[in-house]
From TrEMBL:
Keywords: Membrane, Transmembrane, Transmembrane helix. It comes from the Bacteria. It holds the Pfam family GGDEF. This is diguanylate cyclase. It comes from Comamonas terrae.
Length: 435
């Protein structure tokens, strides 16, 4: 008698009738599994338990195209990391997913239930990594212990579904339900902290994936799906559905990540091009672009009046000469942060070049703009410069005006500049405004 014949015989002598656990009647297949588990011979007979033709049926090229395409997405994202995009974590997530989907196609071995558990663990790990990549943009990440607990719970449910109930339908339902749960949790907590257009793109992609997974779970419960054996299930419409929705989700995610990271990079370089590196204020180019958007002729909300303060640190060349250029840089940086502190958040502060600064105060009339200028001037005088120059006091001069209704901004700027030089001529350390 060959080994296979002996296995067949062992399997055939097992009772086929349904049995009971306590008050609960359990199905034939589960009853047989329990018997086998008790006798410790289930591994020998699992081929009989899961009588599937495709256990020995190699996956087609079309089926392999699913993990291959996901792997390509992962490679693309990892490669993008090396040219400066922050996409490595996303690549790792899709890499994990592609391994999970590849294991799904590998021929089942003697250890088929473990294969299911490993395959599903890779898929869930991929989803968790993607969620962590999303959360790392804005909010606190889910605790690692929570993720491990979810992974263990999912694996336990998968093993129960496979070993006890020999049900691929149940196994798929559990892994998808856990994936959906993890994605919904991350998406909902992230959606409360959306700050940029790229955040919105990623949120929409995650919502789409969460909805697809949830829809699939509902379909699993609601539709009269046949309870197929493990191998048969892969080739059924349900198995195909899970593979292709996985592929669709991965492609949507890859596009969303590329759009979001490209947008982030553009925003980063735009911000750098519009910001003065020393003070963190707008530079000339940044100011022009801000003025373009606020003072466009067709922009009726352009606040009028708008207070304009032109400020200049007095005798700055001497500061450089006496204390050095690095100290001069520090004085500029502290003056810049003073402008930011004293003005309200809607104000627009810019470094016009050298030691000359501009502050725009939307909605401020001449009186309140002058008050702000005086406050800044007084605060600057009172700054202490220990340890480099403990006894030094530095001063600044200010010219203040307002943009009249329908007045071109350039003419108000010229007026503020003239007033600043009037303050210099008056002996510096004072504020001059037009009446
Ligand atoms: N440390 C430092 N110095 C700068 C920077 N940009 C310009 N300067 C210096 O700022 C000085 C400006 O000098 P001036 O235009 O003569 O003005 P001032 O000495 O402040 O004289 P008044 O404006 O008339 O009070 C020059 O010596 C520039 O080299 C910078 O980014 N860092």
């Amino acid at each position: 008698m060959s080994l296979n014949d002996r296995r067949e015989t062992r399997c055939n002598i097992l009772p086929h009738a349904a049995c009971r656990i306590g008050q609960h009647r359990i199905p034939d297949k589960a009853a047989r599994t329990l018997q086998l588990l008790r006798s410790g011979k289930w591994l020998l007979c699992h081929r009989r338990l899961f009588p599937c033709t495709s256990l020995f049926m190699p996956a087609t090229l079309l089926e392999w195209s699913v993990p291959a395409a996901i792997l390509l997405c992962a490679i693309g994202l990892c490669a993008a990391h090396f040219v400066g995009f922050r996409t490595l974590q996303w690549g790792a997530a899709l890499g994990c997913l592609s391994i999970g989907y590849a294991i799904m196609l590998v021929q089942a071995s003697e250890f088929s239930p473990y294969k299911q558990a490993v395959e599903d663990a890779f898929i869930l790990c991929g989803v968790m990594l993607a969620c962590r990549a999303l959360q790392s943009r804005r909010c606190r990440q889910t605790s690692l212990y929570v993720d491990i607990a979810v992974l263990l719970a999912s694996t336990a449910m998968v093993i129960v579904s496979v070993v006890l109930f020999a049900s691929a339908k149940l196994e798929s339902f559990f892994v998808q339900a856990f994936c959906a749960l993890v994605i919904w949790r991350a998406t909902l907590s992230f959606s409360r902290r959306i700050a940029t257009a790229s955040d919105k793109v990623l949120t929409v992609a995650f919502l789409f994936i969460a909805l697809v997974l949830t829809g699939q779970c509902i379909l699993y419960i609601a539709a009269p799906t046949p309870d197929l054996a493990l191998g048969e299930w892969r080739l059924s419409v349900w198995g195909t559905l899970i593979q292709y929705t996985g592929l669709l989700g991965s492609i949507v995610l890859t596009f969303a990540v590329f759009i979001a990271t490209s947008y982030d990079a553009i925003e980063k370089y735009r911000h750098q091009a519009h910001t003065d590196a020393l003070t963190g204020l707008l530079n000339r180019q940044g100011l022009d672009s801000r003025l373009d958007s606020v003072f466009r002729p067709a922009f009726p909300e352009a606040a009028t009046p708008t207070g304009v303060i032109m400020a200049d640190i007095d005798n700055f060349k001497r500061i450089n000469d006496i204390f050095g250029h690095a100290f001069g840089d520090m004085v500029l940086a502290r003056f810049g942060s003073l402008l930011r502190q004293e003005a309200d958040p809607q104000a627009c502060a810019a470094r016009m070049g050298g030691e000359e600064f501009l502050l725009l105060l939307p909605g401020a009339d001449l009186e309140s703009a002058t008050a702000v200028a005086e406050e800044i001037r007084a605060s600057f005088v009172s700054l202490r410069w220990a340890p480099h120059a403990p006894d030094a006091r530095f001063t600044a001069s200010m010219g203040v005006t307002v943009v009249e209704a329908d007045e071109p901004f350039a003419s108000a700027l010229k007026r503020a500049d003239d007033l600043l030089y009037a303050a210099k001529r008056r002996g510096r350390n004072c504020t001059v405004w037009n009446v």
